[in-house]
């Protein structure tokens, strides 16, 4: 029994350090890889990490307050989600905004294009159309066509 504790404790500590260092919440979402995060970021702002807030959308993923609320009100460490600008500060931080994306896709991620696979293209459709209407084709609007073009740019560069 003592030997098992000696083995388990270091493993648990290492896992905790990994979650802390990567900013992960430990939630696994199928096909939400680092490459997918990069493409979602590229689609939103060409991953401009200096992007502040414009017209109520903040950070490299262009996150709105409503999106942040739907994602679970994620904040920077030691921040308070009740603080007026907590969502903006998190959305402007690349690592914190990834956690917002993760929370939103945990809630709304699904096979939006009905091809039998939930993948990064579906996550891009969720972000482009919103969680409740992700199956609408993106090519029907100028902004949707921009997102599709940027998504292809990113996929082709991988």
From TrEMBL:
This is lysozyme. It catalyses: Hydrolysis of (1->4)-beta-linkages between N-acetylmuramic acid and N-acetyl-D-glucosamine residues in a peptidoglycan and between N-acetyl-D-glucosamine residues in chitodextrins. It comes from Parnassius mnemosyne. Disulfide bonds join 36-120, 41-47, 53-58, 90-96. The chain crosses the membrane at residues 7-29. The keyword Nucleotide-binding does not apply. GO terms for biological process: defense response to bacterium; killing of cells of another organism. InterPro entries: Invert_lysozyme (IPR008597). It is an enzyme of class 3 (hydrolase). Its EC number is 3.2.1.17. One of its GO terms (molecular function) is lysozyme activity. It holds the Pfam family Destabilase. Coiled coil: none annotated. Gene3D superfamilies: 1.10.530.10. Keywords: Antimicrobial, Bacteriolytic enzyme, Disulfide bond, Glycosidase, Hydrolase, Membrane, Transmembrane, Transmembrane helix.
